[in-house]
Structures are given as structure tokens and as C-alpha cells.
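Session log. Operator J.P. requested a structure for one protein chain; no other inputs attached. Running the standard single-chain path with C-alpha cell output.
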Amino acid sequence: MSQSDLKKIALFLAKHHVLSLATSDTLELSACNLFYAFDETKLSFVVASSDDTTHIKNIFKNQKVAGTVVLETKIIGKIEGVQFKGEFLELHDEDLKRLYFKTFPYALAMNPKLWQIKVDYFKLTDNTLGFGKKIIWQASFL
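Structure written below.
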């Protein structure tokens, strides 16, 4: 996969701000929606969530997650969406914290707990590039 393909994924993610996240405690599944900021250089989503949610309880047992970001449309030629997999971690990176609060300044007042989803796999479906066009990126360490 080329850098331009990864750039296409980052440009798509920059146009959106809500992801759907799937988690598991290894027995039960859970899904939720989260506001996100995305850092292209660190290939990471930054999200806010509290420890008492089902998805956070799940990640304390299993940090592997999957999710999607999608453009909702009925027009086949405009369908775009990203699927991703990664690891859900407590956020310690100050640059990523700043990115989240720059993206969602009102969140500062809520003092949320922030988390990082370090992505190791992306699949972009982009019908604007041709019907069923898929771009896949996978971290080299896998």
C-alpha cells in the first residue's frame, strides 16, 4: 500500500467525527458510538469514555477492538467507509490529548478520560474511485 492510499484513508477520517466501536470481554460482544479525533502520523483515534461503560469494562479484559466510520448515503456511487482494527489503550500522549481538545473544545469542561485506539489495520471502501474499490493497509509488525 502506498502513502497516497494511507492519505486517502486519513482524508476520509478527517471529514467525520463519529466511529462505531466493537469490543469483547472474550465472551460477550458490545458496540457503541464515540466521537473521535484522528492523528494521521500516529495512526490513532482519540476518544473519551468513562470506566463504567460496557466497552471500557471489556477493554480492561481484551484491548483488541474493531470499528467503522461510514458516510451514510443511499447513492451507490458515493458509498465510502473505513473498517479498522487496533488496540484500545489509556491515553498518555500529550500531543494526542491536545488534538482531542482542539477538535472538541467544549469537552474540556467535562474533563473526560481519554483513550487511544492504535490502529494496525484499515480497509477503505470508496465507490467514488470505482464500484467496490477497496484500499487495505496493515501494520508491518503483524
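Operator note: The radius of gyration is 15 Å.
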